């Protein structure tokens, strides 16, 4: 569970059913369990107005559990990039009364929220729950390249190769944590790389 | 004088009757300069010196925020109110020197919205006059639904329709025209923000329906200045200043505290802004809460009161003032 360190570091809650006409869930991997755990608290007929978009990930589990909820639509996607055009289309055509629920890894929550913010949904209006990996999406503040699934501290920028200190400083606009060169004064100084975000 | 309410010395530059109940007042700076910038939805507190009595009433600024040569407010005459609106209608003439507060905005537009849906009831139209001017100047996307009792009491309906055409929709009570609220709220594009200003019943109705239809609370904005209600006189002990005061029938608790020479902070004097929130040290009796600021829990606890609009009935009340 993420702890509040600085004000920009996002915190996540527990999904809970909101009043609304349509319910859109974007979840990956273990995030599916956040929906099934929430289902017990949902009023009858809640999933009749629900659309679930699910990225099962390499282990491919939990599809059957989501099918059992009988949502109006269940869409299985191989990756976030593959579901983004569909998500943008859905948000463009949506009306007030649509509620958004995001669960799973921080990278997924952040990127789906980024699309939602562009569509005019306030970040405080979105239900979120973190499940699964703590791996981070990191923007190198020097070359601006984004490295996905960063689990170490420090981490190597996959674009320019600088060794980055992964900060808790987070950008909702970029959906990424900020990575700052850790040895700018003396590049020969190489601090040990530790598994920090398993 | 109070925190955040720096005063402006103004002169009444024009008084224009709008219809049988509403009159518009124009203010300019006495030194001829420009007035402070404001944004749509802002209000000023007007000081009314009526003999030995001073009333302080909030009114929404209704002019264009793009023009700060003058401020304009519209005042609906309330024949059974505490006299502020009657004072404005009867005593305030062009040339009169008055004092008003700096503008304060507790009902501002959220400019991140993709669309602004505005619902006005009666004299609740005034903040929308400024907001629509602000949005129209910036090419903003808005739609205004305005309910009035009759066409002749539809204050500024003609002006608004002339300016904005079919972006303004009128509903007349006497013609049994009603907003199909559920349909309206359900057909708004994602990213719409809702603004409502009018009678308390209308605000509560709109807020309830919006919540039920899945509008997140941060997308629903409302403003209702509660006028302080008269009531039975009551005694209050101000523990910090060591004074015991009596609140008159037509006086608000805040006014009584001020009359005793104690200056609590205030901004809106209408139960909205939260500035004058006061802790209760002890009480034996019943609170009559009329504000929109404190939570229901706060109301039940009896530990806090908003002296601008709320009253008390009972044996004793001690406040931290």
TrEMBL record, chain A:
Recorded GO MF terms: 2 iron, 2 sulfur cluster binding; metal ion binding; oxidoreductase activity
Organism domain of life: Bacteria
The keyword Iron-sulfur is annotated on this UniProt entry: yes
Database matches in InterPro entries: DmmA-like_C (IPR048037), DmmA-like_N (IPR054582)
Residue ranges of every copy of the Dimethylamine monooxygenase subunit DmmA-like C-terminal domain listed in the record: 137-180
Keyword field: 2Fe-2S, Flavoprotein, Iron, Iron-sulfur, Metal-binding, Oxidoreductase
Residue span, Dimethylamine monooxygenase subunit DmmA-like N-terminal domain: 5-126
Protein name: Uncharacterized protein
UniProtKB/TrEMBL annotation, chain B:
Stretches assigned to the FAD-binding FR-type domain: 5-110
Keyword Iron annotated: yes
Cofactor(s) named in the record: FMN
GO molecular function terms listed in the Swiss-Prot or TrEMBL record: 2 iron, 2 sulfur cluster binding; dioxygenase activity; metal ion binding
Domain 2Fe-2S ferredoxin-type residue range list: 234-321
InterPro entries attached to this UniProt entry: 2Fe-2S_ferredoxin-like_sf, 2Fe-2S_ferredoxin-type, 2Fe2S_fd_BS, Beta-grasp_dom_sf, DmmA-like_N, FAD-bd_FR_type, FNR_nucleotide-bd, MRET
Protein keywords: 2Fe-2S, Dioxygenase, Flavoprotein, FMN, Iron, Iron-sulfur, Metal-binding, Oxidoreductase
Protein name: Putative dioxygenase subunit
């Amino acid at each position: 569970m993420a702890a509040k360190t600085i004000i920009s570091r996002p915190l996540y809650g527990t999904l809970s059913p909101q009043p609304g006409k349509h319910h859109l869930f974007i979840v990956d991997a273990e995030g599916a369990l956040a929906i099934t755990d929430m289902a017990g608290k949902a009023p009858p007929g809640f999933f009749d107005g629900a659309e679930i978009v699910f990225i099962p990930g390499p282990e491919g589990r939990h599809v059957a559990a989501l099918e059992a909820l009988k949502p109006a639509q269940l869409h299985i996607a191989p990756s976030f990039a593959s579901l983004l055009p569909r998500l943008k289309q859905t948000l463009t055509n949506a009306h007030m009364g649509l509620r958004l629920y995001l669960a799973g890894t921080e990278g997924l929550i952040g990127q789906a929220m980024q699309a939602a913010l562009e569509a005019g949904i306030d970040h405080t209006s979105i239900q979120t729950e973190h499940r699964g990996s703590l791996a981070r999406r990191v923007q190198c503040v020097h070359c601006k390249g984004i490295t996905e699934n960063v689990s170490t501290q420090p981490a190597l920028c996959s674009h320019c190769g600088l060794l980055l200190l992964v900060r808790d400083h987070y950008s909702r606009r970029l959906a990424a944590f900020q990575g700052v060169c850790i040895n700018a004064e003396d590049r020969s100084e190489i601090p040990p790389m530790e598994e920090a975000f398993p | 004088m109070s925190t955040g309410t720096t005063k402006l010395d103004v002169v009444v530059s024009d008084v224009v009757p709008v219809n049988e109940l509403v009159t518009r007042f124009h203010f300019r700076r006495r030194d001829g300069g420009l007035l402070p910038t404001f944004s749509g939805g802002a209000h000023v507190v007007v000081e009314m010196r009526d003999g030995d009595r001073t009333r302080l009433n909030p009114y929404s600024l209704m002019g264009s925020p793009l023009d700060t040569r003058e401020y304009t407010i519209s005042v609906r005459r309330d024949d059974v109110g505490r006299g502020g609106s009657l004072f404005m209608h009867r005593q305030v003439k062009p040339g009169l020197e008055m004092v008003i507060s700096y503008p304060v905005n507790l009902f501002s537009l959220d400019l991140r919205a993709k669309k602004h849906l505005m619902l006005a009831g009666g004299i609740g139209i005034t903040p929308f006059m400024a907001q629509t001017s602000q949005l129209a100047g910036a090419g903003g996307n808005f739609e205004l639904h305005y309910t009035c009792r009759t066409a002749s009491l539809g204050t500024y309906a003609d002006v608004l329709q002339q300016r904005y055409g079919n972006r303004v929709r009128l509903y007349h009570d006497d013609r049994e025209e009603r907003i199909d609220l559920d349909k309206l709220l359900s057909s708004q594009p994602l990213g719409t923000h809702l603004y409502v200003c009018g009678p308390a019943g209308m605000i509560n109705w709109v807020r309830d329906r919006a919540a039920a239809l899945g509008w997140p609370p941060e997308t629903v904005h409302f403003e209702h200045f509660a006028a302080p209600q008269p009531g039975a006189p009551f005694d209050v002990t101000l523990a910090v200043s060591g004074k015991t005061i009596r609140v008159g029938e037509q006086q608000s608790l805040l006014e009584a505290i001020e009359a005793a020479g104690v200056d609590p902070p205030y901004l809106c004097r209408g139960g909205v802004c939260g500035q004058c929130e006061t802790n209760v040290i002890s009480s034996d009796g019943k609170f009559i809460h009329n504000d929109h600021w404190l939570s229901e829990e706060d109301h039940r606890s009896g530990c806090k009161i908003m002296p601008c609009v709320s009253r008390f009935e009972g044996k004793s009340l001690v406040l931290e003032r």
